[in-house]
């Protein structure tokens, strides 16, 4: 049985000088590191953002983690702090190429074990499309994007154009919440992460459904939402009830929300056996992929343990642990190379 973790982050060793040179900003993201297993700090200019483990920037440490945890392959994406969506287009393109270059070199440390996703300057549709095409030819396995761009959600016309291009290039898309609420009500107890993240993903999925965006997107698009789809699977009944009872809800969507669960997948990062079983009931076992949010503290420490101990039927358990991810990200060739 192959175990594939599809939600795992990297923050390359980008120093402040490199960040300043490419972003043109004193407040750009960079990584401060010292010796030791937990001796890193994600930085935003001079401000400390979050302490991090060596796994985040050191591929040898990551592979050792994977060996210890029994994970065969990790699909790698940049840390959302690195998206660069606030940069002007030319700088954003340079920044994304820099991050992608670092990710490619990181994954090259263990090409049969680490499968990178690129990032793109989503604020420039033409450049973003071009970069996906370029990245797929360079061996990336898809693209990692934020769930919105300012006040534009993924049902925005330009962003739909980008998603359609991803379908054309057969590039899987991992959607991650970012740019979380900063108001005082979210500032305590990590509530921006505990409540804001789930709400952001829920909002994006409903925006795609209720706007009729899925009717305009190619059915071949492979779309994956992190963190178990946020609040969506657990509040689907509320949206379903509203679609049937209020014409303002169903104005642009010809089918109820449950109809569209076949159009996207989610990861398994829900941290509770009952929640995982409900997630599988709502989405179907074939559309749930193992995701850990490794190596962050809010991620699953023993990757795959929840799936193994959730009481899922053996076939569903094995599909979630790896079979679904192999198909979704086209990893069969990678696994054959690893065995060879």
Kindly summarize this structure in a few lines.
The protein is of the alpha/beta class and 340 residues long. It has 13 helices and 13 strands.
Report on this model:
This protein is of the alpha/beta class and 340 residues long. It has one domain (4-11, 56-339): Alpha-Beta Barrel (TIM Barrel), CATH 3.20.20. The chain contains 13 helices and 13 strands. The protein has a 5-stranded parallel β-sheet. The protein has helices at 16-23, 59-69, 89-108, 125-137, 157-168, 191-210, 213-216, 232-245, 247-250, 273-283, 305-308, 314-328, 332-339, and strands at 4-10, 29-33, 40-44, 47-52, 73-78, 114-116, 142-146, 148-149, 152-153, 172-176, 223-225, 265-267, 288-289.
| Tally of alpha and pi helices | 13
Question: Quaternary arrangement of the chains shown?
Answer: single chain
Along the chain, the helix and strand elements come as EHEEEHEHEHEEEHEHHEHHEHEHHH
Strand content: 15-25%
Which percent range fits the helix content? 40-55%
The name of the CATH architecture is: Alpha-Beta Barrel
Largest sheet: 5 strands, parallel
Subunit structure: Monomer.
Protein name: 2-amino-3-carboxymuconate-6-semialdehyde decarboxylase
InterPro entries: ACMSD, Amidohydro-rel, Metal_Hydrolase
Family: Belongs to the metallo-dependent hydrolases superfamily. ACMSD family.
Which short descriptors sum up this protein?
single chain, 340 residues, alpha/beta, TIM Barrel, 5-stranded parallel beta sheet, 3-stranded parallel beta sheet, zinc, aminocarboxymuconate-semialdehyde decarboxylase activity, EC 4.1.1.45, Metal_Hydrolase
């Amino acid at each position: 049985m192959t175990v594939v973790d599809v939600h795992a982050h990297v923050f390359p060793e980008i120093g402040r000088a490199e960040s300043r040179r490419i972003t043109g900003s004193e407040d750009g993201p960079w990584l401060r590191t010292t010796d030791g297993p937990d001796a890193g700090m994600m930085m935003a200019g001079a401000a400390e953002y979050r302490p991090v483990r060596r796994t985040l920037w050191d591929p040898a440490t990551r592979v050792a983690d994977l060996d210890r945890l029994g994970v065969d392959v990790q699909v790698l994406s940049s840390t959302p702090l690195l998206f660069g969506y606030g940069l002007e287009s030319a700088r954003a393109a340079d920044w994304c190429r820099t991050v992608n270059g670092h990710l490619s070199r990181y994954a090259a440390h263990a090409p049969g074990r680490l499968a990178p996703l690129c990032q793109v300057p989503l604020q420039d549709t033409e450049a973003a499309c071009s970069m996906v095409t370029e990245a797929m030819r360079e061996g990336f396995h898809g693209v990692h994007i934020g769930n919105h761009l300012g006040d534009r959600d993924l049902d925005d016309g330009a962003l739909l154009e980008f998603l359609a291009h991803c379908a054309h290039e057969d590039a899987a898309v991992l959607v991650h919440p970012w740019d979380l609420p900063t108001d005082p009500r979210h500032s305590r107890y990590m509530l921006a992460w505990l409540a804001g993240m789930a709400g952001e993903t829920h909002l994006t999925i409903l925006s795609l459904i209720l706007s009729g965006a899925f009717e305009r997107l190619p059915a071949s698009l492979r779309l994956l939402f992190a963190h178990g789809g946020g609040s969506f699977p657990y509040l689907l009944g509320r949206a379903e009830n509203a679609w049937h009872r209020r014409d303002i809800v169903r104005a642009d969507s010809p089918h109820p929300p449950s109809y569209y669960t076949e159009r996207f997948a989610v990861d398994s990062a829900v941290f509770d056996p009952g929640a995982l079983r409900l997630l599988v009931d709502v989405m179907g076992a074939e559309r749930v992929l193992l995701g850990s949010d490794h190596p962050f503290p809010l991620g699953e420490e023993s990757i795959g343990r929840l799936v193994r101990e959730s009481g899922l039927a053996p076939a569903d358990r094995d599909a979630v642990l790896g079979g679904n991810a192999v198909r979704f990200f086209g990893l069969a060739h990678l696994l054959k190379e690893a065995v060879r």
